[in-house]
Design goal:
Length: 256
């Protein structure tokens, strides 16, 4: 937690790697020559790259309007262009001028950040493997509830200022809801857990979107209302931890 920003748990990369079997490595480089060299080397080694860019510079609803971190899949360098895919705005591979790519990769909101992916994702992991991963996460999550409570106190007492940022947590909750989606088709035992995570992800996103709009003058969110919404999220997080802890303690990977 840093002032107005509530950070995520920063365990999503390792957790995703364990569940999928992918080898994932983050990198960040703000020198263009070194960044381009590192990306070319990774691609030549048959790795896949997910790279951070600035939505302001690319085809998106925020082009020439708003600086926001976004992600592209980098397929290859091709002369004075790169070939990328944008799974949100334009999922088919398409070309981007190299000078635009350089600018957007080095934007302050992108910071030359990226993830190197190696390996192949197979079938969704079975529910017992997902449950084992959740079981390992429960103690850390309980500790982080206190961080959330302190953040709520800071918001209530005005220490965060008006620009409250919970984007990291909203993004992690979205990723987690996708990971715990019913594996290998519907499963009556696992579905309630997946639905609970999906609902929590949806609620975090709503609060994030409202706070984000308020900081940019396109919406309003009174501090008292934000405190109520964050308190509701904290209660739901604690309830979910208690529920999952009870499930795991009886040795069942899925609710009965």
């Amino acid at each position: 937690m840093a002032g107005h920003r509530l950070g995520g748990g920063e365990r999503w990369l390792a957790g995703t790697a364990r569940l999928t079997g992918l080898r994932l490595q983050r990198f960040a480089q703000t020198d263009w020559a070194e960044l381009a060299q590192a990306e070319r080397a990774a691609l030549a080694d048959s790795a896949q790259l997910i790279v951070a860019v600035d939505s302001f510079d690319i085809e998106s609803p925020y082009r020439d309007h708003e600086h926001l971190t976004h992600a592209l899949v980098l397929h290859r360098y091709a002369g004075d262009e790169v070939v990328v895919a944008d799974m949100t705005n334009r999922p088919e591979p398409h070309s981007l001028p190299l000078h635009v790519y350089q600018k957007t990769r080095l934007s302050p909101v992108a910071g030359g950040f990226g993830i190197v992916c190696r390996g192949v994702v197979g079938v969704p992991p079975p529910s017992d493997i997902v449950a084992d991963r959740l079981r390992a996460e429960l103690p850390a999550h309980r500790g982080e509830l206190a961080v959330l409570e302190q953040f709520i106190t800071d918001v209530r007492e005005g220490r965060t200022g008006p620009d409250v940022d919970i984007a990291d947590v909203a993004a992690e909750r979205l990723a987690l809801s996708q990971v715990v989606a019913p594996p290998n088709g519907p499963d009556d035992r696992w579905t309630p857990v997946a639905e609970a995570f999906a609902d929590l992800s949806h609620r975090w996103y709503i609060v994030h979107a409202m706070a984000w709009a308020a900081t940019r003058g396109t919406g309003t969110l009174r501090p008292a209302r934000l405190v109520r919404m964050l308190t509701d999220l904290a209660t739901r997080e604690a309830d979910l931890n208690t529920r999952l802890s009870a499930i795991m303690q009886v040795g069942s990977p899925c609710p009965r």
